[in-house]
Structures are given as structure tokens and as C-alpha cells.
Specification:
4% helix, mainly beta, 8 strands, 107 residues, elongated, single chain
Length: 107
């Protein structure tokens, strides 16, 4: 599976997990196992604010899923300009950090 991250300024955090062809966004599961090789599922056929475009399965059978990546106002560059996540293993998906931690005031 390839997850293409689309950074968006949002106050709602994202917990994303993967189990085979099932992606779960903050507890809501989407099963893409029925999508055959070479097929595309249009974005308007998926009712999720987390999926930002069409979901495709390439000819080799790998899913390509565009996902919104929420971030805070001081998100680092790696979060605002993320690389796609390739060969995502099952389990909790490691996403770039939401925001930079606040600096401690100097005494």
C-alpha cells in the first residue's frame, strides 16, 4: 500500500491504522479489498473527510490512497511537505508529527 499524504491545517488529530486492505481513520474503517487490480474508486464514492481523492489499485495489486494529514500551526517542514508512505505495514501508521512542541520560556 502507498499512502499519499495531503497536509491540511486541522485541529482534529488523526489516528490511522492498517490491516491488509482496511484503513481505519479515528475508528472508522474503510475496506478496499474488493477493488480489483487496475481499478479506481472515485473520491465521491467514499464518504470520508480523510480520503482526499480517488483510491486506485495498480496493475501489480498495490493500493494507492490519498489521505489528509492534519497539522498544527507550527508543524515542521517534514509534516507540511511529506513524502508518500510506501509499503505500509499492518498496524498503526506512523504519521509525521502534528506540531512542533512549544518552547519552554527562558527563566
Amino acid at each position: 500500500m502507498k499512502i499519499i499524504l495531503h497536509p491540511q491545517r486541522r485541529d482534529l488529530p488523526l489516528t490511522l491504522t492498517k490491516a491488509g486492505d482496511v484503513l481505519t481513520f479515528n475508528g472508522e474503517a474503510f475496506d478496499f479489498s474488493a477493488l480489483p487490480a487496475g481499478a479506481t474508486l472515485p473520491a465521491d464514492a467514499i464518504s470520508s473527510d480523510w480520503i482526499t481523492g480517488k483510491v486506485e489499485r495498480d496493475e501489480a495489486g498495490a493500493l494507492i490512497v490519498p489521505v489528509a494529514l492534519p497539522h498544527g500551526p507550527t508543524a515542521p517542514e517534514a509534516t507540511r511537505f511529506p513524502a508518500p508512505l510506501e509499503n505500509v505495514p499492518d498496524g498503526t501508521v506512523a504519521l509525521p508529527i502534528y506540531d512542533e512542541p512549544a518552547e519552554e520560556p527562558q527563566a
